[in-house]
Amino acid sequence: MDLVNLVIIIACVSLFYALFLFVKVKSQSAGNERMQEISSKIREGAIVYLKRQYKSVSIFFGTIFLIMIALSFCGIIGKFMPYSFLLGGLLSGISGYIGMRMATMANVRTTEAARKSLVKALDISFSAGSIIGFVVVGVGLSGIGICYYLLKQHLIHMDTAYNIESILGEVITNLLTFGMGVSAMSLFARVGGGIFTKAADVGADLVGKIEMGIPEDDPKNPAVIADNVGDNVGDVAGMGADLFESYVNSIISCSALALGSGFGESGVILPFLLAAVGIVASIIGSFFVKTREDAGQPQLLFTLRKGIYLSNILMCVFSFFLIKNIFPNNLNLFFSIFFGQICGMAIGYCTEYFTSSAYRPTKELSRSTKTGAGTVVISGLSLGMLSAFLPVIIVSACILISFFSSGGRIVTDFQIFSKGLYGISLAAVGMLSTLGITVATDAYGPIADNAGGIAEMSGLTEEVRKRTDMLDSLGNTTAATGKGFAIGSAGLTSLALVAAYINQAKMINPSQIFDLSIINPCVLIGLFVGASLPFLFSAFTMSSVGKAAMDVVCEVRRQFKEIKGLMEGKADPDYQSCVDICTKASVRQMLVPALIGVVSPLAMSLFLGVSGVSGMLVGATVSGAVLALTMSNAGGAWDNSKKYIESGHFGGKKSENHKAAVVGDTVGDPFKDTSGPAINILIKLLAMVSIVFVSIAVSGSLF
Questions:
Q1: DSSP character string of 104-173
Q2: Rounded CA separation 71/78 (Å)
Q3: Do 341 and 515 form a contact (C-beta atoms < 8 A)?
Q4: Vertex 19, ends 14 and 22: CA angle to 5°?
Q5: Cα–Cα distances in Å, from 181 out to 175, 220, 272, 365, 579?
Q6: pLDDT given at position 701
Q7: Distance from C-alpha of 265 to C-alpha of 327, rounded to nearest angstrom
Q8: What pLDDT is recorded for position 158?
């Protein structure tokens, strides 16, 4: 049997397991009528937003598709590439949509479960998160697996000479175009969802908590439904599309390097197989996520770790025997995969240490609230910058070990050098191989957050809210860990994509010598421009959140002023107006940041060619990874610092310390949920667009 068929079968098993969990969660009680009414409003708002977003995105995809069709007729790109691009975007959008529907179905059931016990609430929210996780890996792996198989069989049928190298080269080129579609859709989902969720969150907090002094998720707050909708479209749909992109592109970039490294078809298939056995390991690990009723934060964290640890141990065992069967004379490739997993877990530990309220950094950040909001912001930025250093060292060590353990050497022979690059790409695949359970631990957080909102708006007991808050607080830490995971893998994947870009350029014109030395002015300019792109991108996304949040703040203030009896609970707020403001603002303002990832590599290709583009990709990867880690970790720490105070420390809720912490959290919201996590998609989109249009850089550059 063709091994790719086995990969597709295991990917389908992942989808069937997600279906099994869906039936389990769906069968649970959805609570009383009031709870169901609130959940329905959240679901309807999320659906309206995604419909508007997908309508706008379809115009972008349609335009790029027509341009690519024209280029294919001119012979500049392959005839299947436009369709690969479209399919990648479609599957990314589908995975995000399914994730949103699952989250809005599970939120009210988690609330009802929390009325019974913490154990039950964790079971329902984690099962719903697992649905999202296994849909992401199932759709992603089956998508690229089916594309690979069908394209290969078609080209074999068309090529009577059966030149397997050229056939695999064309298949990989189409998969890279598939990855470009995935990256573009993921960037829209992350940026658009991030703008929505943080505009609503900031607007609700600034007026509700600080100005009016009402609790979080108080039904009197007009922005409360928009805030809960944002959890689903940003932290679930956006996050799902983000990790879908990381997962798919790590596999594709690894396969792309296999041919140039001399590993042949076996090397091309290996990342597919690693992803497949990772699904099996994740399914087994998910059965071990159980806790006891009196569990605190450390016990809950260990519960989630238990599933991740077991999945990674099983993945190590499976990958060893996989390498032993496919490359019996090159067992060192196993160490690249192994150290990729170690690197992922180490980054997770670093992120947890700097963002969890169980450790000193976030406690010290909470202490800084005693002197006001200014010191909270300063301390949070300092914490974020400090937190970026260790993950960079970890990734650097992983690069070094993976490069040499896979047979790479720093020599002029590009094939030997490429063996090391293949090892680095295997480390990225190893890091993301158990993504099914990683996404589950990430996605359950927004579901628990929504559950807490429904509990507050439904007037349930304080005990219910306490249980959902415990899960939500833990979810902030696991979400930050997931972001660190994605950013770390983005660094490894982007490095592999830079190598794949140079490979593609050499294939187009083998006789041309590309000067990639640091003293080449084109490379140096590319480095500077590339390093500035994540900052330009972040400036646009942060500004978008600020503008949308101002509109929400003005609307919430207006309603509190004009709707008589609202503050006393005698009148209902107009929730829909805030949802509409966030929807229109996010759909309108997500386009410019997304275009940066498409226009920049094309412009650099036209002006500075392969040397300039290579410099741009390296510059964007280095600055982007550090900036993304800084923003994500600072935002996570600010959020958990606020929750730490709300749990009764440093004066508790409604104290001056709490107000200062809310300001810090407000600054951190777009850091951790809009700009930070979207940067890792940006740097891979830059690389994907560069690879797809590499012929322009090779033949048509101005300098």
A1: HHHHHHHHHHHHH-HHHHHHHHHHHHHHHHHHHHHHHHHHHHHHHHHHHHHHHHH-TT--HHHHHHHHHH
A2: 8
A3: no
A4: 130
A5: 10, 42, 19, 40, 28
A6: 66
A7: 12
A8: 76
The DSSP call for residue 205 is I
Residue 32 in 3-state DSSP?
Answer: coil
What average pLDDT does this structure show over 588-605? 87
Sign of the alpha-carbon dihedral angle for 645, 456, 129, 202: negative
Element (H, E) at 43: helix 33-73
Confidence of residue 159 (pLDDT cuts 50, 70, 90): low
Using the predicted structure, report yes or no on whether residue 1 has a pLDDT greater than 60.
no
What is the 3-state secondary structure of 627-692? HHHHHHHHHHHHHHHHHHHHCCCCCCCCCHHHHHHHHHHHHHHHHHHHHHHHHHHHHHHHHHHHHH
518-559 residue pLDDT tens: 888 989 999 999 999 999 999 999 888 888 888 888 888 888
Q: What is the pLDDT of residues 446-476, one digit of tens each?
A: 888 888 888 888 888 888 888 887 777 777 6
Q: Give the closest residue to 41 by CA, choosing from 453, 337, 343.
A: 453
Q: What are the DSSP calls for 533-591, one per residue?
A: HHHHHHHHHHHHHHHHHHHHHHHHHHHHHHSTTTTTTSS---HHHHHHHHHHHHHHHSH
Answer for the pair 137, 282: CB distance below 8 angstroms, yes or no: yes
pLDDT in tens, 180-224: 999 999 888 888 888 888 888 887 877 777 777 777 677 788 888
120, 464 Cβ separation under 8 angstroms: no
DSSP-derived 3-state class of residue 72: helix
User: pLDDT grade, residue 666 (50/70/90)?
Assistant: confident
- Say yes or no to pLDDT of 40 above 60: yes
- Give CA angle at 182 (176, 185), nearest 5°: 145
pLDDT band at 69 (very low <50, low <70, confident <90, very high): very high
Say how many residues make up the chain.
703
User: Which residues does 628 contact at the CB level (< 8 Å), separation at least 6?
Assistant: 483, 487, 490, 534, 676, 677, 679, 680
Dist. CA 167–CA 671, nearest whole Å: 44
Residues ≥6 apart with Cβ < 8 Å to 280? 10, 13, 314, 318
